[in-house]
Each structure stands twice: as structure tokens, then as C-alpha cells.
Amino acid sequence: MARPREFDADEAMDKAMGLFWDVGYEEASLAELLAAMEITKGSFYKAFQDKQSIYLAALDRYNDKVISGTVGYLTNPAEGSGRTRILGLFAKVAQAVEQDGDRLGCFLCNALIDKAAEGGKAEGKLQAMVHRLENAFFRALQDDGQLHERDARETARGILSAYFGLRVLGRAGLSRDMASDCIRQVEWLLERGSR
Q: Residue 177 CB: number of other CB atoms within 10 A?
């Protein structure tokens, strides 16, 4: 008879995701993962194949918990116009940095520049998340009905770039002025696109 797991898998996964989010794939050693997850080596290998498999699972968890929430907000007309939703998202990110000192930034942004993103399954998962966000911005723009499809796609990509920039700057200790300037640039993109 198999022994039950000695740990809460969801809690352990959140802790592994937190470590990868903070230090990246290369810097997270197996010993650090075990300590962060508060599990033994034996339990780790019963639940996961290796470090790569838990990293992929952490990306899936971030996609399910964070990216899905962001996409849901951006594509929900009950939250206001597409413009309001987009600017609201940027305001939330800036506010989190200002109030909470959010120095983790965005796991997706961090992972995109991590060596683990160089090909294979990790790269595929990361690209899929980027496209989900791009499509959410695109849908928000389309909801306002002021842009042709091509213009909405180009504007969505510009806004996505600004979003990633804001998240990276947050990790670097973003100043209030920089956040305000970034949001003004997004407003400019929205206004330019609606002409």
C-alpha cells in the first residue's frame, strides 16, 4: 500500500513558484527548493520527476492563478470600457509597487529572460502566456469598437510592451514618476489608436 504524501501539494507548489519567481530557474538549487517547499528529497521525487518538471508546473500555476485573473479582468465588460480596464490594470500594478514595495515583479517577465526559456516546453508555455495577455488587451480594445482589427492588434502589442516594462521597473524599485509616465504613454497609445 502506498504511503500518503506528507505535504500539501498546492502549498508546496506555491512555495516552489515563489522561489523560482524570486531567483529564477538557474539560481534555484534542489536544496533551496526542498527548503522552500518544506519537503524531503524522497517526497520531492515521489511527486516530481526533476527540477525542470516542477518549474513547468510552477509556470502552469502562475498561468492559472495570475494570468487567468488578469485576462479575466481585461475581458470583462462589467469592469467598464476596454480603455477603463486597461488603465485600471496599469493603475493596480503601479499602486501595488508604491504601497507594497512589490520587488518580485511578474513571474512571467522574470521567466522570459531566464535561461530556462531557451527552447523546449518552458518557452512554449511562456509564449502562450504572452499571447493570452496580448489577446486580452486586443479584446479590451475591440470592446470599445473604435479600432480596426489591425490597429487594435498593433496597439495591444504596444500596451503589452508597456505592461512588461512597468512590471520589470517595479522589480527594480520603480519610482512614482516612472509609473505615472508609463501610464501616460498607455493613455497616448489608447488615444492615438482611437483616432
A: 8
Q: At what angle do helices 120-143 and 82-100 cross, to 10 degrees?
A: 120
* Residue 47 DSSP class: H
Helix, strand, coil shares of the chain, percent, nearest 5, are 75, 0, 25
> Per residue in 135-157, pLDDT tens?
999 999 999 988 889 999 999 99
Distance from C-alpha of 59 to C-alpha of 56, rounded to nearest angstrom: 5
How much is the pTM? 0.88
**CB neighbour burial string for 1-35, b if at least 16 within 10 angstroms, e if fewer:** eeeeeebeeeebbebbbebbbbebbeebeeeebbe
CA–CA separation, 79 vs 73, rounded Å?
7
Rounded CA-CA distance 73/67 in Å is 10
End-to-end CA distance of the chain: 68
| pLDDT given for residue 193 in this prediction | 57
For residue 30, what is its C-alpha cell?
A: 534542489
CA pair distance 105, 126, nearest whole angstrom: 16
